Amino acid sequence: MSLSIDIIVTAPRWEQQAGLDELTQSTVRECVAVSAAQLARDCELSVNFTDDAAIRELNAQWRGIDKPTNVLSFETPGPLARRVALGDIVIAHETVAREAEEQGKSFEAHLTHLIIHGFLHLIGYDHQSPHEAEAMEALERRIAASLGLADPYEGSELVDGPSTMGNC
């Protein structure tokens, strides 16, 4: 299996983020390894690093929520093992920076978690029910730990409804 990751930067603030390509590549590859996702041969996905204005438009158009969010995932339809185009992950700089500060995390750690979260949506994970949220969050924790990061949900309330990440 080979995975091609198309990294698109559509907001100037991301251009100042050193190591963005390497962080994205290594995070996605670790997601594939830890999740044991059975991807199509020569699979590809795109990760768009944008701003709050652009993600707000997407959030309004596709989810009916007229406000910016941290990450959106757009899964390509069809069986996972046959999808050559896995889908798109879109991440907003201002929201990532604000949340990282509010949560007392480094920007890179929070960004890594959002890439993990977005990728898991593309391979079929969700957090609409407590059971789904528990499974998804457990895998997010395992991937984060394998990357040497702290539990991304540390300090969050226990799952009793849709995940605390409810922005995707």
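The record above closes out task 2.4. Task 2.5 opens with a second protein, given below.
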Amino acid sequence: MKKKLVLLMTGLMVIFLLAACGSKSQDDVVKELNGKLGDLSSYKVNAKMTLKMGTDSQVYNVEIWHKDPTFYRVNLKNAEKDQSQMILRNNQGVFVLTPALNKSFRFQSDWPQNSSQAYLYESLIKDIVADKEAKFSSTKDFYVFETKTRYQNNSMLPIQEIKLNKGDLSPAVVKVMDPDRNALVTVEFLKVKFNASFDKDDFDMKKNMTRAQLNLPAMAEGGDKSFSVKYPTLELKGTKLIGEKEVAIEDGKRVVLTYDGKKSYTLVQEKVTAKVASTTPTNVEGDIVDLGLTIGAVSDHSISWSHGGVDYMIASKNLTKDEMIEIAKSVQGDAVK
């Protein structure tokens, strides 16, 4: 009888120990993540990013390469619309490449250090570590954190849910939410490879532009210079559209929308035929900003971006950066003027 009792007690102890090993505390996981951050030398990631815009959703395939300490290559591709953009960081700076328009821009920026990035593993770890009030839970397969974001305009996207795989703490799913807890950005990590190896020119700007262009679908000679004018769906109180002017330019079409009122601004839309890429990228004053559907450049009095083969720019003397960003994000459909 005594022997059976000892065996039973031993069995229970093993069960308790296994249970304790399988479920770490929040502090344990944060400590381990800090260690991974220190040891992170390189990785390759394939992910699917879904952006919810009103009733519509856009899906992007995202390929992320990172080599310690500051080399990055983020390739965003909308398979349905044959649109792609690439963010590249190397010793020469931070670049945004738009292969279909033969355009490359160079930023003097500390990206990606200055903001949350839902698809960058080290950025997610920093968000978790920085938020001392982060919520934590554990499921069978995942550790789940709910943290504040560090976006430039985080009043619109203040919360994120980060699911990490229990085995190696690799990212599984990230949901970035609005104040009503609606997921507007969802990143599903399909493949994560740590300690990845790279070729010498994998982060070279010219080589990446050339490769990206070779993968573009064939386009008609000259291209289509027409386009549908788009209007911001975000309305500012006391501001209204007072003018719309179309201007013929040498190699395309330009439309200028003028909004007047308490918060006045000008929205310029322009479509030109793709030109031969310059070997020297255009230097941009301002910083990289994630507009959801595309990457833009924001400065104190303007924001510019390209999408669907069209260049956009908002200029204003009395809009804040956050207001320009939100208006730019809303220029997506043929809204009622």
